[in-house]
Structures are given as structure tokens and as C-alpha cells.
From TrEMBL:
It comes from the Bacteria. SUPFAM superfamilies: Xylose isomerase-like. Belongs to the UPF0276 family. This is UPF0276 protein MUB46_07230. It comes from Microbaculum marinisediminis. Gene3D superfamilies: Divalent-metal-dependent TIM barrel enzymes. InterPro entries: MbnB/TglH/ChrH (IPR007801), Xyl_isomerase-like_sf (IPR036237). Pfam families: MbnB_TglH_ChrH (PF05114).
Amino acid sequence: MSVTVQPAAASDDCAIPARAGVGLKARHYRTILESEPDIGWFEVHPENYMGAGGPPHRYLSEIRERYPLSLHGVGLSIGGDRPLDEDHLARLKALVERYRPGLFSEHLAWSTHDEGYLNDLLPLPYTRETLARVAEHVDRVQEVVGRRMLFENPSTYVRFAETEMSEVEFIAALVERTGCGLLLDVNNVYVQATNHGFDPCAYIDAFPIEHVGEIHLAGFARETDDLGEPLLIDAHDREVDRIVWDLYARAMRRCGPVPTLIEWDANVPEWPVLHAEAMRAEAVMREAVRSENAYALAG
């Protein structure tokens, strides 16, 4: 089933600029309101704002009056084999109507089973049956919320033996069926490439970049598995790694400037450190685009 949805950004004050933003943290509320830093936009998890009121909504409302906002969900379990939680969808719709986010995204994952909720974003088997189920759920979300949603490529540590297509092929087919957009998480690409042994450059080169509406960058933790092999954890607890910056520049040369988020959810630093990481993303974005334009002119 196809549905008619509105573009992610409905008006100028909602639109997310092709600049860097950061995840909004409670410890930074006052600093942001008092100093009004030069930064493109903020992103929040809607699940943190599904209560009726209180300080979180008061601060978010004030910040939203000054900056564009993006919602990045973690609770829809879009890949689950049960119907979507309609109460959760209703709360999500209310948040979209209240804060008018420029972008709305979710993860290509599942996290529920029967009545239970798992505190992880788990991988999917890339089969035609899964594709049909996920597409049905995406249609339902876009129908209820009335907006196009973006889908984030996952970060995984295990994979299903049962698979009929590559992850990139699955994502491209999902876009074709539903009209959704994509969120390219470059850190997830490198984490998966290391854990599963594939070429991250080939993944980015094959990704349907024309549908990317947002990019995520984050830091990862280095571990080893039971066999002593490298294992990367999508930790969001430190600076972006040099290798991820290089992959980000590669993606920028393919797609041009795109709203880019610094995800830093654990061991959250003081505001100047987080802001500096966002400014580095903007510098990499500018340089990648400049070098690509210079190459095109020389050709």
C-alpha cells in the first residue's frame, strides 16, 4: 500500500539546514538558552518527551522557538512481527504536531516481543517476508503521522544466516515501496564493516545516497569477541573516530551537504566540546564539497 505523506519540512522555520546539529541533552538546556550558540539544529528522542508536561517540555519549547528540531525515535520496533503500538503512534503524532520537527527518523530494527520491550535495537533477516512487514509498518506510521520518515541503517553485532538480499538492497527496496527517506549513520557502517568483515567504502558507494536526508556521526568502543577478533560497539560515548570522519567525507562527496548530527549519548561532555565536534563536521562537509567541485571543474 502506498500513502500520501507531506515532506519532512513543512515550512521554513521547521526545515533542517544542511549544517551540523547535536543531540539535545538536559545538562545543556540552560547553556543553550543563555548563550544561543551558533549551531544548525538539535535532535531529541521523542520517547523522552512523551510525558504530559514538566521541565523537559518547558525547555524543549523554548529551544524549539530558536532552533530547528529533529525527532529520532527508538521505540517503534518497526521490524517487529507484531502490529505497531497504536498508543505509541498517537503520542508520536502529538509530538510532531506540537514541535513541528523538520525531520523524523527511526531505526531499521526491532525491540519488542509480545508484551515485552527489549532495551536493544535488534537486527532483521533481509528477506522478502521481512520487507513486506516493514513496508506495511512504515506505511502505517507515515499515514498516522502524516510525514515522510527517514530510516537509519543499523549497527549490528550478529546477523541472520537466513537472508535473501544485502542490507543495501533491502533498504533500497524499502524506499521504493514506501517513499520513505534514509538516514545514513556513518559510524554504524564502520562498526558493522569491522564486526562482519566487509568494505565500508563499498557500502557507502552502493548506498542509495539520493534518498539520504540526514547523516549521523558518533564514537565507538573497541572490544574483542570470544575468539579474540575485533568487535566494535556503537557506544556514542566519545569523539568521532578518524576513520569515520574519512568515511563521512566520502559520503559528502557523493551526496553534497546534508544535515549531520553528532550523537554523544553517554559520558556527555561539556557544551564547548560537543559544539566543537559539530563545527568539525561542518568543516569536513565544506572541504569535501569544495574538493569535489574542484575535481569536477578540472575534469
